[in-house]
User: Fold these one by one.
Assistant:
Number 1:
Amino acid sequence: MKRLKVVYFTLKQHGDDGKLKNIGDRVIFLGVRNIMRCALGPHDEEICFLDDDITIPKDVDIAVICGMPQILNAKPEEILNSIAKVASMPIPIKLNLGAGSFYFDAFGPDRKAADMAFADRVVSNHGAAIYREYNGFDAITCRDHAGALTLEKFGVTARALPCPGFFSTMFEPRPLLRSGRELVSSLNGTASFWNTVRADVHNFYRSLWEADNTRVFISHDYEDSTMLADLGIPFVEFNDAEDFVRFLAGFDRILSLRVHGALPSWTLGLDVTLLGLDRRALLGEDFGAKMRVIPLRSEADMSLALSAGGALDERQDEKFRQDWLLRNLSEYVDLIRLMVGRKLGIDFSGLENDPLGGLHQRKIDAVRGTTASGLYFSELFVSCDPEFEIPLSKMRSNHHHEKTDDKLIVVANGKLTTLAFGPYIRIPAGHWRLMMTVAASNIMSEQLALTLTVSKGIPGLQIARKSEKQIVPDHQCEMTFDIRFENPSATGDLEFVLSSPQATNPDAKFTITKSFLQREPN
């Protein structure tokens, strides 16, 4: 049989600055590679990165996209454009394995209705036509039903199959004697997912550590490491996903805020509690892989997670997991072999699965994180000072504007009521006072009304709002806003929106010369 050449398109494990990126993307790659090795047997492998300029490697027979959230209700980003570019490449066979959807409100009683509503939102989104280019793939699998439903609306056929992350550990040896220490798979507070959670994640980690300092905290990326170091919590970190999944095999329990800490753990037989932030937390339930999922939206949910334990054990036994993996692996393998056999004329009748071996369990100290404390919070907040000016270069506007750190000048277009917005900063939780000075000129009306709104998160939670009105002598005036508000948590970006009840005359000029935050006693 011809030895095939396969190029795997995935995401980089480290940034150009050397900092570790989310190791979960590499877990998906391992699962895809295991599936392809089972389907094809030994083959030549090359890795390319979707976050680089996409080029066609030489003599490639098969190109494979390795999972990730691709189906989004958002403007297409560069990664999605790169995936579409792969779909159009002159390669004999192109596969997209594990395309996933992403939305937050996924925990209601009617999941199918929520998935359909998500699909409708994606279809109506600007730029969504890019998904029609997915017809260039010879086969696509979606790791959730929402993704398959959405692609169907673009005339793209996709088969719903479990996330490749489940298959990342299917050949990993499991020791007879395992540690009883609980793993904690961490998610740092810089992640945008925390915009939907009204709770103190940092205090949650502190509580976990104080309640049981035998727990082993896992860092998935550079930001996790800096956070845990600042919190004074020992942790382990991995520069390679293979070491990560082998480490998981030596334990019996995991509390995970990372989906791709939970999926390989379930395959290995750990007792999994997954704190769900979005649709991805239901990847197992879509296909009958049961784990304890706690939707995470409030402090009460975190308290429930702290108490989750043996009484709630919903593990499925080894035979169930073995049958589940073999059944779903067979679907993957049959799909790939059918496509390769038909297009390349290869006979797979005599090929057996090619299981992966591997070294077992590394000692915790061998992968102990060494990041110095003092980095996480210094990078999380725009400032930790009790009072500071906000650089106006962080503000934005859809009108013609000029900005420096000291000044933002907006020239109204006569159509849009929102004049300026931003600065998308994080500040410590607590009570704050925002002061902003706005000078207006070239105003053609006798009276000017402006509103300043403080909001947070996606979708936006309005925290404070204040309106000002002034008579406008000589076509100019100055307003000073003074707003007090409570920032409910240290995570999530704040947005200040300056607007007028109705569009001002064209060429009206608004100059923000001061934007100042001051912390107040609780």
Note: The two ends are 73 Å apart (CA to CA).
Number 2:
Amino acid sequence: MKQKLRRFFSVVYYNLRTRQKLFIGYLLAVMLPCLLMTALFYYYLHGSVLDTDIYSVYTLSRQAASGLDSALQQARSITNVLLLNFDFNEILESCNRDNDYFEKRGNIIKLSHLKTTLQEYEAVHRTCFYFSDSVIEANRDTLFFLSEIYRDNLLEDIAREPGDQFWTIFTNERRIMGGGETLSMMQPLFNPEDMTQTVGFIRVDYLQEDLRKRIESFLPTARSRGFLVDRRGDVLSRGGPEGGEGGLPVPLQELLAGREDGEHFYACMDALGEKTLVCVNPVPAGGMSLVFFTPFCEIERSDSLLLVLAGILMVTEALITLCFGGFLCMSLARSSDLQLRLLYSQLNPHFLYNTLDIINWQAIRLDAPEIYQPLQALSRLYKLTLNKGSTNISVKDELEHIRLYIQLQNLRFQNGIRLQTDYSPEVMDLCILNMLLQPIVENAVVHGILERPEQSGTITITARLSKGCLVFCVEDDGVGIPPQVLAKIQGSPYQSEGYGMQNIRERIRIAYGRAYGISIQSLPGMGTRVELTLPAERPGFSRPEPGE
């Protein structure tokens, strides 16, 4: 081999012209320092960038645990609302006597009315009740006899330890129609005159399919797995490749060894047959834990490392074009997706939504419409904001979101804000990014109309299809935007401040690409016009990643 190399240099290189030899020497003189610099930078930056990627995965796992906790908290909210309800307490008191047919029928009617009022808890699939045959005269799809718990060998743990809420999995139920496998919370009900006697149960069901989708929406890579486990480490729900089949790869007791109760943490260990990042986060609402397993090799070859290398190699444009161009496009696509998911994961108003429901029930009980009517509007607004964890929303729901926002503002400003909409029916089922129009409307209200002396005005929203694109126009007759402020909004992203327009512009760029965006026109004293150009996408549309 050495002889062949010597022969090559002695024959080929010797016969080259002087200009060609100089070019080769110049090329080596440029490439060698670049390669050396790349190696040095990679060596020093690899650790810090890898730590950042690990923390991003850990952050996603914490947001997933927070979302699950908010959903499971709805079960506790339901039981609290029912225990405060006058009709429900009358049913509990009737457990002390043998009711006749008409009293049993009355109890069923009361329970049916109560079940109807619980439909606002969107994360919950179904609420069921267990009572003795002295309380209800017939059992239906959500009404069961108390004896069934013991006859079917259900919930032996809670039967032995009354007073504790208990979570269990129901499969292949013989009488409940609709839905599928559920994760259910059982809440015992006690005799008001003897708190040691269990007279019934409230059962709150969550569809396993919904829980799986919630978990998988936060998994950072295609090979990641997520497990919702109870205190014993038994798997209650899971998500990941092939549904994340199988038990917990590492026993929960081993993961929690030496850790405090309720502690959030992550660690690297051998699992899934390779080095794996394990993120453990408590879900207090059910006394559970959410455990994410992500192969370490998936993190090491993540987009951030490729971006570091591409940024360093930009010193030599030719090298980037020839060697790293494709990797850079792929990296930007994956990085964009991660940025979007982290941005949406910060929108987490579940805790406020649950609190509003409790206050709303109290207001209804006290017959205070001036309280519960705006609360219902606000609860509906937050439900649309949560959007079942989806980053996309239909145009119809986004416009409803805006209508509720204006309704709430008008409660404060004496109906001084008028909303007009003009759209064609074919745009209503199209999908856009969630919370895309609402910040623009909020700017029009706060910075436009409410700064007028009379604090009143009109906002007009139009939506149309133009050349295959969905075009929104939001106009107001407020005070307008001063030229110097408008220049900042339309200028560099590092100079843009206030009004939240840069956030919207960046979300559109990340999700759809630079072909779409936002434009703003405004004259002081005349109002502001904001126009958004988006792709016309329908539900289920698979958007190609940038660079494809």
Note: The radius of gyration is 30 Å.
Number 3:
Amino acid sequence: MNLRHLLLLCSALWLAGCATTTPPDSSASATTASSAPRVPQGPLTPLSSKNARSGKVASLAAPADLWERIRRGFAMPDLEQDLVQNHEQWYSSRPDYIQRMTERSSKYLFHVVEELERRNMPTELALLPYIESAFNPQAVSSAKAAGMWQFMPATGTYFDLKQNAFRDDRRDVLASTRAALDYLQKLYGMFGDWHLALAAYNWGEGSVGRAIKRNQAQGLGTSYTELNMPAETRNYVPKLQAVKNIIARPEAFSAELPLIENHPYFQAVDLNRDIDVALAAKLAGVREEDFRALNPSLHKPVILAAGTPQILLPWDNANVFRRNLDAYDKGQFASWTVWVLPRTMSTADAAQRVGMSEYDLRNVNNIPPRMLIKSGSALMVPRTSAMDADVSGQVADTASIAFAPEVVTRRSTVKARKGDTIISLARRYSVSSSDVVSWNDLRANAALRAGQQLVVYLPVRMGAAAASAPSSGGGKAVAQSSRSSKSAPAKAAPRNTGKTTVAQKGGTPSKRKR
């Protein structure tokens, strides 16, 4: 009896289990199938010793620090030259310089290594900014190359690094690293050799290509060490090799490398409104100096979100910034905005229009002295109720400032020549005929006598106006072109006689009275 009851209970439980079991999900089955191990078909073949040596075995332990991670990724052939030893000696004899340089790099090096590994590029290239700029994103060379990767303006533009009145992406950590690695990959694709690619990065791809062709024409080798190149490029790869050797074996050079953790130093944080640099640093809980070190492309005291939609903050400060930004209720986020000039005007006029002192307007916009600001220029000005909107994307991305030399007019007395008309005389002195008529109180069709004295006002640069005037007995009226912002040599106007005086800056010469 008990056995029968036990069998009935087991049967009931089995039926209940069948009733509640759901059919397998097709997507789950697909996932299981895709993750299932793939078993090779057919007989197995032994692995040859050659194949075993060429394969890489991944380490199960993460690198202890970033230096070890860099060492594991070295993949470029070593360069052995006396020049390498010379540069090893130079660096190793300057431990303070190595310490400063490597400490500065600690903010940026993890990101560079990450990008190199993602692209499967040699990690030696992470050391290249030591050679280019000592990892200083604010470095500017005598040739106007800028940033830690030292991009020239034209090359930066080619690789989509924006350079305008408010930011220079050649200094931006993320953008410049992306562009530099794009460029290095392009060069390696051209030459198939990392040493030649580096030479081209320093000297230019065209220069390296021509040097290779010259050697080929002479039946010579075309490796890096065999090409004829400038001294700077000749030393470029040896410098990198020297730094690589010191990083690989610091104890051999009595070098002490600061600890750089194998962890991101910064995070990117999104911005959705314009905000002052000082306020952003305060909300993040970092010094403004440290904030600018991570965001070195910013030129001005305000961040324009339409052009810079992300900022970089130290890893632990990113969440602090987000919380404080959401809780901020103490007024406007940006105290600056951008004003586009409707017409060409002097700095004094522009400052009066926006309620600033001329000194402050010059200082915040880097306006040189004795210059007019051209129409369409974008100036950083205080934000007011009349200009309270965030700056548009078009202005943030394309803003520029253009200048023209301020001019004064110099009053000169000239003589008409035989056969002169008002039109021919005006053309000779590059002034309008209507001005000649106005300055001399003449009719438009007035005839001129040979030797007749006429007054003309010739434009000159501001600096030339301070020159001493010729004696009243005669002299030359000196004019200088003001139609271009570029300097031009002084040009002597035709000979004239009479007194020369300087008219007021920016004014229209008054009509001569009888």
Note: The longest strand covers residues 407-415.
Number 4:
Amino acid sequence: MMVKRAKIIVLAAVLAALPLGAAFAGGGGQKASGKADAFVKPAETVTIRIGTNWSPERDVNYRDANGNPGMSAELLAARTAAEKSVLEKYNVKFEWYQYPGSGRASEAILPSVMAGAPVVDMTRVTGWEGDSSAQGLLLGQNVLQPIDDYAALFLDDPESRWMLWGKVYNHYFFLTEQMRLGSDGNLAYNLSLLEKVPALRENGVLQHPAKLFNEGKWTWTAFEDMLTKIKAYYDSNTPGTVPFWSNWRLSAAQAIHSNGGSIYGDAGIGISSQETKDAVAYIERLISRGLLTDARVTPDAASAEIHGSNDLDAFNKGTSAFAQLQLFGGALADLRARGESVGVVPWPRPDTMAADDPKYQPLNETKDGWAFVRGIGAQKTELAVRAFKEYLAVEYATRAGSTRALDYLQTDRGLRSYAAEYGYDVLHPTYGDDILKAMKAFPTTPNDYGRATGWMITWEFSILGDSIWKIKNTPAYSVNAEQFLPRIRSFMSDLQLSVDNGQPRERTVNANTIR
């Protein structure tokens, strides 16, 4: 998706500021107390209305004009079982409501909450809504209800911890959209292209990324060396085929987490940490050496506008050995039709970090999720939290063919199902086992919540992008991030008390003016 930074609008409700340490802590792992322990099943069936931008993908009763459901047979069976379990255990029925018109939650929820009659009880919060994230917009409007009182339901349950995002603006707000491995932008590679490069073989055996990862050899240097060999081979044999066609934002975010850094995670704002600065410098080196290609719409360094690029097209056409794949199926139809194989691997770690270092945390960025609307009352909120927890647990246990949701991504059967959905060739007779084993290292619990803050796009473009692409003589990232940090803290301070206890309201703030 291309995002034009000049059009970025973030809605924020601005009140007084909390101390910076409290205001900007991320997940933190704190446990709620009190309300999570006592619960009485309602005697009468309660309907929980859930808003979404596209209801057919969740509504098991939806049928199109030809009588077809809006989801696969597997998902239909799993979500039907989940809704049945929710009804039996909590006497709750879900009603899926599609937002009218543009489908934007931020346009539908605010007026209804301000009128004292919320149009929905829960809402899907998308990674993008117009030119910003729905999380940032809805938090700015102060229409989302913290679920701190119920966080212990997840934090105290190892089977359900994956469902809960960390803290944003010092509160728990969001449950995950899906159980997944890693994040948008997982590092994928075309095995068919790698096999043609003689320099990637040792004693006749292809040293592909998942193999190196499983042997503890998958480092920044190893990756750079592999890209160098791929570039040398294809420059001589098939000009136009590049080692790695990527998006600078995805690559930087992945490299940052592989180095123990963050954008906005459990430790708070991480854009100016040394780990983050070193990771950005690594990405800049790959770009400068022609090892990472990013085709921007506006390559003119004098331009004030830069755009993201989509690397799936080159990868699908077989003209890029590596890519960072978005987490949706069906993206690589042409590649599969040619009979080519795709592997996947966590981002490499820096050479100074041991393979088992706990700081090595591949990115699991929060994107789409679910949140609870202000004004529905404490009892209904708790019921909705518990019911949706049950819904997610049963859905993934059913998809795993198990009684445990976690088996979906912790057993070989579950991983093979997941790999088939996204096109990773874990059944390859030579490389499949390596790929399957490497997949187990991807995190399933969200660990970066930058997109929910309201300033993520400022970081991506004004801080990171302008520095990398030298837009209007922007200084190096290490300098630019330090210059922006106080302004981002001020932006977050202005929002903090609104999130805590302010009234829902609309105030338009241009995040790109954090300058």
Note: The first strand starts at residue 10 and ends at 11.
